[in-house]
Amino acid sequence: MEAEMQTFVSEPKDSIGATVVDDGALKDDRPLLKSVSNSASASISSQNMEELEKKVAAYVRNDVYGTMGRGELPLQEKLLLGFAILTIVPIRLILAITILVVYYLICRLCTLFSVPNREDEQEDFAHMGGWRRNVIVYSGRFLSRAMLFAFGFYRIPVTCRTPLEKSDHQIGQNESNNQSEEPGRPGAIISNHVSYIDILYHMSSSFPSFVAKRSVGKLPLVGLISKCLGCVFVQRESKSSDFKGVSAIVTERVKEAHKNKDAPLMMLFPEGTTTNGDYLLPFKTGAFLSGTPVLPVILRYPYERFSPAWDSISGVRHVVLLLCQFVNHIEVIKLPVYHPSQQEKDDPKLYANNVRKLMASEANLLLSDIGLPEKRIYHAALNGNNSLPTTPYYPVKKEIASVDLMRLFHVPA
Predict the structure, then answer these.
(1) What does R_g of the chain's alpha carbons equal in angstroms?
(2) Using CA atoms, how far apart are residues 260 and 347, in angstroms rounded to an integer?
């Protein structure tokens, strides 16, 4: 199960499943919570670990289960977990599997005798029209909400901000302050990224398209569903000279969704990875290259015992502990459609930064300037305080990697 979780939702970038950079290239997306060979070593004291956690506060768990979900629990919590594992967890698992199988059968029936779109090394049923598409969309939204209910998200309050409320918090300077209220639907939904639960919520709300690794399209049950969603598939091993790259394909999809009301919206997580829900990381520009309006959506997960955030905890442990919670909470803030100014259209970085600041202001989120490299270092430290993953950011040469690690941890060279 952990392998499937990592395949389907491992380190999403602009969306689920794939690690995508602005130019369409791909970064290493190996599991974050496993030690990697050929790693550098550095001795990290508890004091240095505390300093590290201050720097990477966006990835630190603060619930009663502690770091990596392995903290020491009081007897009462252990008894509650034991009771839940014997009672509610099996019921929820059966419900979740049943919902997944039912939706797969619906998708199989609706796509019977239908030929998927095949363009730019993609394959999907998202642009299939008529009753088939309606059944896929509306049943998908209903069953996604049913899945959330099975996971304990019984009530999902949604707050919709009005354009007037938004203007009070508009961030930017000069021309970027004045949005051109051009007509038309947004081309993409922009959301902060806290958990794989985000995906289920957005499916239940607007049923958008995501970005996923090509291997997702070959998974049992999930593969066909992802094609019906219209996922943009990433093929890391592709070396075709005519392959446009993920950014180009996503930009085209965003423009099409903006112009055509029948085209599925793109769902993009511009932070590039999940956080603990209290911070907002820097936005990548891939979602803003088209210069079309976007719909900012902010997700919050209030909790008392277990945080639904997928930050520094393994997939299987997270699923089990999430299912053990009798009630889980999610709150949604939907901002008005953000229409970029001409200056923002000409400068995607400015566009992305202004939307980020607006979302942080509306949801009282803290801005952080760290990213995935720091997350990998933190997870490596959690795996034994002496491992540094080999990534494009950190070369294989130990003497170079050790310097990077020690600088972050303030370890004397």
Answers:
(1) 21
(2) 24
Give per-residue pLDDT as tens, 266-310. 999 999 899 999 999 999 998 899 999 999 999 999 999 999 999
Q: What is the CB-side half-sphere exposure of residue 13 using CA atoms within 13 A?
A: 28
The answer to whether the beta carbons of residues 312 and 61 sit under 8 Å apart is yes
Residues 6+ apart with CB under 8 A from 320: 85, 89
Q: Is 237 helix (H, G, I), strand (E, B) or coil?
A: coil
Sign of CA dihedral 31, 54, 303, 226: negative
The 10s digit of each residue's pLDDT in 158-197 is 999 877 554 444 444 444 444 444 556 899 999 999 999 9
Closest among 152, 168, 404 to 302, alpha carbons compared: 152
Q: Which two structure tokens, joined as six digits, stand for 176?
A: 């970027």
Which of 147, 140, 338, 320 is CA-nearest to residue 231? 140
Q: How far is residue 197's CA from residue 183's CA, in Å, rounded to a whole number?
A: 32
Q: How many CA atoms lie within 13 A of 357 on its CB side?
A: 15
Give phi and psi for 209, each to the nearest 5: -95, 150
Nearest-angstrom CA–CA distance, 263 and 257: 5
Length of the chain (residues): 413
Q: What single DSSP character describes residue 357?
A: H
- DSSP labels, 260-320: -TTSPPEEE-TT-S---SSEEPPPPGGGGTT---EEEEEEE---SS-----SSS-HHHHHH
List, in sequence order, every residue forming a beta bridge with 122; answer none if it has no partner: 119
Token code pair at residue 26: 């791909």
Among residues 54, 4, 10, 64, the alpha carbon closest in space to that of 324 is found at 64
Tell me the CA end-to-end span of the chain in Å, nearest whole number. 41
Q: Is 247 helix (H, G, I), strand (E, B) or coil?
A: helix
Cβ contacts of residue 364 below 8 Å, gap of 6+? none
Compute the 3-state secondary structure of the chain and give helix, strand, coil in percent, each to the nearest 5.
45, 10, 45
- Residues 177, 159, 364: CA angle, nearest 5 degrees: 60
pLDDT-derived band at 411, boundaries 50, 70, 90: very low
Q: CA 382 to CA 384: how far, in whole Å?
A: 5
Contact 145, 204 (CB under 8 A): yes
